[in-house]
TrEMBL record:
Ranges of residues in domain Prenylcysteine lyase: 146-476
Entry keywords, A to Z: FAD, Flavoprotein, Glycoprotein, Oxidoreductase, Signal
Protein family: Belongs to the prenylcysteine oxidase family.
Organism superkingdom: Eukaryota
Glycoprotein among keywords: yes
Cross-referenced SUPFAM superfamilies: FAD/NAD(P)-binding domain (SSF51905)
Organism from which the protein derives: Populus trichocarpa
Keyword check for Zinc: no
Full protein name: Prenylcysteine lyase domain-containing protein
């Protein structure tokens, strides 16, 4: 459940708004068909984009339903103290090629993430003291990623030794396997399940073991590195310790690498731009609460009592906390969402909380190890106005109470708290929901979120879903023999030769 008690950018006025009522349904398999997408985050926006990009000879009507007043889902901005910061998905990796292409295609500008300018310091807090504390090292990179730029830092090398090098090797190897998903559609199959998709890239085994098992048994990292630095990174990225799957862990560690970036003015513009450029009917403030299969089409009903019919329906939001009723029912493995409370404070941290004398002694990123007594995951400086006036971001598993905030901050001028159902609670071995929920034309983008939850993994999953729709629905009366359905023949490009 997303709380938006904040002043976020309202896109209402920016989109041509179509008034709801039942949309037409026409003969299946062809044009005039409608694709309904539930959720306007990066997954839903990417499905729309790739349906257009991969098909020139089919132009279905695309409807996107968003229950909030704005698009973007878990990519959102928060305004505090007059400045806007990323409230959800905040950093992009240099090898996030879909996000990168979107940014170019939409004429958006890249920037370094907030608080990346100048020098910064990292402290790993265990409740009694800082087990690691670096001061004023020069770095040009973003928050978590900064940690790894410390690889060269003498203090970390002294503490963790060559395990740092082994860890980087593990991350690079995993990232290289992931790059297979950018191969051209001529050689890259359309995948009917997450398992099949992972096996093809050689990534499936990493979902069978926890990150801890993988790093201890496979990569043979020093236990201290796992307990401290690795745990800090998975906690900051996924709010969870090293029991997450090896694959989610590798993605998390990769996200702490060099060269990370964000979109100037807010990452949400990627989702907004993709929707705006894909000839979509966007319905804001429209919460779908039932999806019923009625033979030739799906009927989607909203909480406002509107009904829509579509030949293809795409769920692009996690079903775990959703109240959508399916008829006939669908079955997905039980999955919990990990809730992360993001608290933004304009004010000043009290050094006494950390047993320090001066504000200047507090590291700019204070991260914590796994210990149930610690009331927060991390506190970082987003922006420093002057020595007594800063904006901070705190991540925690529980909501931060006023009493707790008052013990951590000596000055608190403005506080904004967001409770995100942020990402799945990862475990090993992972179980995956199907991409195709009913064996027909009801699809689920977020099945892939058990792999790892990022902007890029959502885009990769969405592209596959778009290709599944084009081959299974629009390609079904093509001359493609079913025996070679999984190969290039069913690829969207192959459809171009139909006409
Ligand atoms: C991006 O800029 C180019 C050149 O100015 C323009 O042709 C194109 O339409 C723009 N794209 C979008 C999505 O606005
Ligand atoms: C990104 O865009 C370039 C240039 O248009 C294209 O060659 C490449 O295939 C695109 N990458 C992906 C992952 O779509
Ligand atoms: C995954 O594990 C299976 C069974 O343990 C093994 O046969 C296979 O080679 C492994 N695949 C990769 C890519 O490591
Ligand atoms: C990780 O899993 C082990 C074994 O299942 C368990 O003992 C431990 O408490 C878990 N750690 C966390 C942080 O959940
Ligand atoms: C939507 O796209 C048009 C050009 O196609 C552009 O002028 C407009 O600014 C875009 N709006 C948003 C919200 O991106
Ligand atoms: C959806 O709405 C239609 C039209 O109002 C109604 O006939 C139908 O019973 C509703 N379906 C569900 C599952 O509520
Ligand atoms: C810091 O900035 C605030 C306004 O943002 C101002 O009120 C205060 O006087 C400044 N303090 C110093 C030490 O410059």
């Amino acid at each position: 459940m997303f709380l938006f008690p904040l002043k976020i950018f309202s896109l209402l006025a920016l989109f041509s708004f179509t008034f709801p009522h039942t949309s037409s349904s026409t003969a299946a398999g062809g044009d005039g068909a409608s694709v309904c997408i539930i959720g306007s985050g990066i997954g839903g926006a990417s499905v729309a984009h790739f349906l257009r990009r991969h098909s020139t000879n089919h132009h279905p009507k695309i409807l996107i339903f968003e229950r909030h007043a704005i698009v973007g889902g878990r990519i959102a901005s928060v305004t505090i103290g007059g400045d806007a910061f990323e409230a959800g998905a905040s950093i992009l990796h240099p090898k996030n090629y879909h996000a990168s292409n979107y940014t170019n295609f939409l004429n958006l500008t890249r920037k370094r993430p907030s608080s990346s300018e100048g020098s910064f310091s990292l402290g790993i807090w265990d409740g009694n003291g800082f087990v690691v504390k670096t001061l004023n090292l020069k770095s040009k990179w973003g928050i978590v990623n900064k940690i790894v730029s410390f690889f060269n830092g003498v203090s970390l090398f002294m503490r963790y030794g060559f395990s740092l090098v082994k860890m980087k090797g593990f991350v690079d190897e995993t990232v290289n396997k992931f790059l297979k998903y950018y191969e051209g559609v001529e050689t890259r199959p359309v995948f009917e399940s997450v398992e099949e998709m992972l096996k093809w890239a050689g990534l499936f085994n990493l979902t069978g073991k926890s990150l801890k098992e993988e790093l201890v048994d496979g990569v043979k990292l020093a236990p201290l590195l796992i307990k401290e630095l690795v745990t800090v990174i998975t906690r900051v990225n996924y709010g969870q310790g090293v029991n997450i799957s090896g694959l989610a862990g590798a993605v998390s560690l990769a996200g702490s690498g060099r060269g990370v970036w964000a979109v100037e003015g807010g990452n949400w513009q990627i989702a907004a731009g993709l929707i705006n450029s894909s000839d979509v009917e966007l319905y804001l403030h429209e919460e779908i609460d039932s999806i019923s299969y009625l033979g030739e089409y799906y009927e989607l009903n909203s909480t406002k009592g509107n009904a829509y019919s579509c030949e293809v329906a795409v769920v692009a939001t996690p079903l775990d906390e959703s109240s959508i009723q399916f008829s006939p029912p669908v079955s997905v493995p039980v999955r919990q969402l990990q809730h992360t409370h993001a608290t933004f404070v304009r004010g000043l941290v009290n050094p006494v909380y950390f047993g320090l004398k001066a504000v200047s002694e507090i590291p700019e990123l204070v991260a914590t190890i796994e210990d149930p007594r610690l009331p927060f995951t991390s506190i970082s400086i987003l922006k420093c106005y002057n020595e007594t006036d800063m904006t901070y971001k705190i991540f925690s598993r529980q909501a931060m109470t006023d009493a707790l905030l008052d013990s951590i901050f000596s000055v608190r001028k403005e506080t904004v708290q967001i409770n995100w159902g942020a990402y799945p609670h990862y475990k090993a071995p992972e179980k995956f929901a199907p991409f195709i929920l009913d064996g027909k034309h009801l699809y689920y983008v977020n099945a892939f979120e058990n792999v790892a939850s990022t902007v890029e993994t959502s885009a990769v999953a969405a592209e596959n879903i778009a290709r599944l729709i084009l081959s299974r629905f629009f390609g079904k009366d093509s001359s493609c023999p079913s025996a070679i359905k999984r190969t290039s023949c069913s690829s969207a490009e192959a459809l171009h030769s139909d006409t």
